[in-house]
Structures
1.
Amino acid sequence: MTERPYVIDEMISAKAIAARIEELCRDIHKEYGDTDKLIVVGLLRGSFVFIADLARELDLPVEVDFMEVSSYGDAMESSREVRILKDLRGQIEGRDVLVVEDIVDTGHTLNHVMALLRSRNPHRLRSIALLDKPTRREVDFKSSWIGFEIPDEFVVGYGIDFAQRNRNLPFIGSVRFTDPD
Ligand code: IMP
């Protein structure tokens, strides 16, 4: 299949992301400032850049773990079914946990992951997503913290891909197809 040509328009600059992460970390600190050790759980693969910046900005004792769940495959539409491809390495019972996601879109992914982790009886469980597309929501899910609300556009960069590409862009950009169709 030949790829449709597209360009990427910058939507959120690297500087704006860094400034927002500083603000978010101040808020997280207010809630988790008394923790012995916060387990920061990144959802692979889209959150890998966000969790790296977030974890380094957090002035708290932090442990890092990852989960991988299936969502889009290589297509631009969400498959509504959420499957766990890789589970946590560690136990979270009685622990403080912060789940880190790139985007809340329909809400199915985080809704499912949070319900699963809640069933393991953590002490405190919250979520943070860099981006939120509230107009796309199909389930009643609200993340504890959100970096930016964005319109219903397909975005890439800062860890987020389109068919596994563009994850290494330092900013968030929206995909605009340039073919006549
Ligand atoms: P949800 O289950 O529909 O909320 O989907 C969340 C997941 O869909 C995110 O973790 C992303 O992997 C993916 N996703 C949603 N919107 C976009 C986008 O604009 N670009 C790339 N991936 C997206």
Note: Residues 14-153 form a domain with the Rossmann fold fold (CATH 3.40.50.2020).
2.
Amino acid sequence: MRTPVIAGNWKLFKTINEATALVKELKSLVAGTSGVEIVVAPVFTALSSVADEIAGSGILLAAQDCFWEEEGAFTGEVSPGMLKDAGCSYVIIGHSERRQYFNETNGTVNKKAKAAIAAGLTAIVCVGETLAERESDKTFTVIESQIMGCLAGLPAESLKQIVVAYEPVWAIGTGKTASEAQAQEVHAFIRELVEKLFGKPHAEAMRILYGGSVKPENVKGLMSQADIDGALVGGASLKADSFAAIVNFMA
Ligand code: PGA
């Protein structure tokens, strides 16, 4: 049995005060929830304050990116060990916005994933095709090269520190969710790839999240699919009530 993960990616929103207020509200709304890992990913500057606010609540903290070196002359970067120090247990790596605007590649995602694992973090590795790629029937080729590239050279035993997020780029922030069948098809394909690379037990244990316009209204249908083990939520995670409704999808 795979424990579902519902992760809120707050992107470039929320000051420290706003972030702590949001998580405080969220805490009370999910106080009775069990059987789901709840993760929030604020901006770097709000990490420690949010960590203090969620201490003892069961809500887990993620960063939205990291660098692959632990320390050194790398102005502007933040290392996985420093994220751990700030209270993170997760880090999102290779989000499509980072690929699109900040030159993230499968190669840099791979280095970051290895560094995150070495620091004891769980990496949420994001993959997904663009609309042009889907329309030209390249979805599976693109996903295959992303999974191969991002997970290259990882020792099988480190896979428990990897969560994959399938986020079709055309569904992010657009209100256009992939249909349950479209998402399931790609999730099953990702699990097959992981099986080929690392063997069946690892593939079966791996959590694969769907992301792209997840809302309280569509989460249940998505989560009913055999290979969908959770959600990476952007817009709907910025309000405590909508994110809590997604977290409590079983209710
Ligand atoms: P969205 O974003 O839920 O606003 O579509 C998802 C994401 O970018 O992770």
Note: The pocket of 2-phosphoglycolic acid is lined by residues 9, 167, 172-173, 211-214, 232-236 (CB under 6 Å).
